[in-house]
UniProtKB/TrEMBL annotation:
It comes from the Bacteria. The keyword Cell membrane applies. This is ABC transporter substrate-binding protein. The lineage of its organism: Bacteria, Bacillati, Actinomycetota, Actinomycetes, Micrococcales. PROSITE patterns: PROKAR_LIPOPROTEIN (PS51257). Pfam families: SBP_bac_1. It comes from Microbacterium alkaliflavum. The keyword Disulfide bond does not apply. PANTHER family: ARABINOSE-BINDING PROTEIN-RELATED, POLYGALACTURONAN_RHAMNOGALACTURONAN-BINDING PROTEIN YTCQ.
Length: 454
């Protein structure tokens, strides 16, 4: 059974998942785990007598972060390689996992990729390798996202607490205020449309991770998974909570209140800049992404603001998250304890964290940052000086309870993408899409040797 599960994970890792952070250049070659730095290091090792830990990471400021760590440590040095962003790196890491060699000591992974690698016995449990020393630095939700069962398989770095980014000029023109509930969201969208205004958002088929977060907000628990349960996965993709969310968005699509364009395409960005969308339901990393794509310049400069996500029940608000990364220690690490020190220590010093959030590269999850006056009171330029961290993103990050990811998560994303497309094309209601999704994913899980609990 385990062999079939491993093969399933291998074949699904290349499928689309959450948006990866921006990439910088690098040769992408594999560094030799442990030992001396080799030609594949993208940084310069200054303390050449210290043991080396190899690291793959794609953040734009990875070299500066590694240099900060190396400068502060005499007992270990990091040899950093950019093996590509997101899927490009995962493909190379998967090749190394399958071959049993060629992996780095520490690898950067998004939270939803941890379980598919963990089921292949590719990652080290960090529970006894420094986790207790840094446990209080992060929220319970941050730790849950990097855990599989009782094991901790990643050191949290950044996250994507969600909010509703909106155009102040559109809201002012049509005399509306940020909706606090999903019912208000629909009512407000209808009012703007009736007055000749733009659609309110995009229900994008290519963003299944975002839609999954919306399911969690309504109390859905799409998956349960614990390695100790001997290959059992709980799958509830057609629960009443999931159907309510998909039916709600299907209704918005049918009424023409939201668009159906894929996000992160040039056409989508052009539409955002042109004011074709009144809101962008997204995460705390969005301002950096949008600015990098040219949003917020020229005619649409100074028009953006952010507000908390609309809720199903304002008396019981639920914070949700889209995206986020961690550093995981691989099973090919020559010295797991030393590698764990790097995983927990890289991007953990004040200089690196400050540089990361001030340049909108990451939204840090470290509590030292989230609680700091500088971070909370920061007047975000993209939002016209709004203290967005204090008002929206820090409360969301601290209230977030985490998600349960599974080894078949990438197949699930692919299957959900197909069902969202069916909704958008008018071929299925939300409830029908949920039933089809459940049938598809359950069948796949059983084919891979899992026992499914529905």
């Amino acid at each position: 059974m385990k062999t079939r599960i491993v093969l399933a994970a291998i074949t699904t890792l290349a499928l689309a998942g959450a948006l990866a952070a921006c990439s910088v250049g690098g040769d992408g070659g594999a560094s030799t785990g442990g030992g001396n730095a080799d030609a594949n290091c993208s940084n310069t090792i200054k303390k050449k007598d210290a043991p080396i830990v190899t690291l793959w990471a794609w953040y734009p400021n990875s070299e500066a972060v590694v240099d900060n760590f190396n400068e502060a440590h005499d007992d270990v040095q990091v040899c950093w390689t950019n093996a590509g962003a997101g899927g490009a790196e995962y493909d190379k890491f998967q090749t190394a996992v399958s071959a049993g060699s060629g992996a780095p000591d520490v690898v950067m992974v998004e939270a939803d990729r941890i379980a598919p690698f963990q089921v292949q016995d590719a990652l080290v449990d960090l529970k006894d390798l420094g986790y207790q020393d840094v446990k209080d630095n992060f929220s319970d939700g941050a730790w849950k996202d990097v855990s599989v069962g009782d094991g901790v398989y990643g050191a949290p770095i950044d996250g994507g607490p969600m909010g509703m980014i909106y155009r102040k000029d559109v809201f002012d023109k049509y005399g509306v205020t940020p909706p606090t509930t999903w019912q208000e969201f629909e009512t407000t969208a209808q009012k703007v449309k009736d007055a000749g205004g733009p659609v309110f958002a995009s229900f994008a088929a290519n963003q299944p991770a975002e839609v999954t977060a919306l399911m969690y907000q309504n109390g859905a628990q799409p998956f349960t998974y614990d390695p100790s349960d001997k290959g059992e996965i709980g799958i509830k993709l057609n629960s009443a909570e999931v159907k309510e969310v998909l039916d709600y968005w299907a209704g918005l699509v049918q009424k023409g209140l939201v668009g159906t364009e894929d996000q992160f395409t040039p056409e989508y960005i052009s539409a955002v800049i042109a004011g074709d969308y009144a809101t962008y339901l997204s995460a705390a990393w969005a301002p950096g992404y949008l600015q990098g794509a040219g949003v917020g310049e020229g005619a649409d400069a100074g028009v953006w603001a952010t507000a908390p996500m609309p809720q199903w029940d304002t008396a019981n608000p639920v914070a949700i998250n889209w995206g986020g990364s961690a550093f995981s220690v691989t099973k090919q690490a020559k010295d797991p304890e030393l590698a764990a020190k790097v995983a927990f220590g890289v991007y953990a010093d004040k200089k690196s964290l400050d540089e990361g959030w001030q340049n909108q590269i990451i939204f840090p999850l470290n509590q030292d940052v989230l609680k700091s006056d500088e971070f909370q009171n920061y007047e975000v330029p993209f939002f016209g000086g709004q203290q967005a961290n204090k008002e929206v993103y820090v409360p969301a990050a601290n209230a977030y309870k985490g998600m349960t990811y599974t080894p078949i998560g990438q197949y699930y994303y692919s299957a959900l993408t197909k069902q969202i497309a069916a909704i958008n094309e008018g071929k299925a209601t939300g409830s029908e899409a949920a039933d089809a999704l459940q049938k598809d994913v359950v069948a796949y899980a059983k084919e891979q040797g899992f026992t499914v609990k529905e």
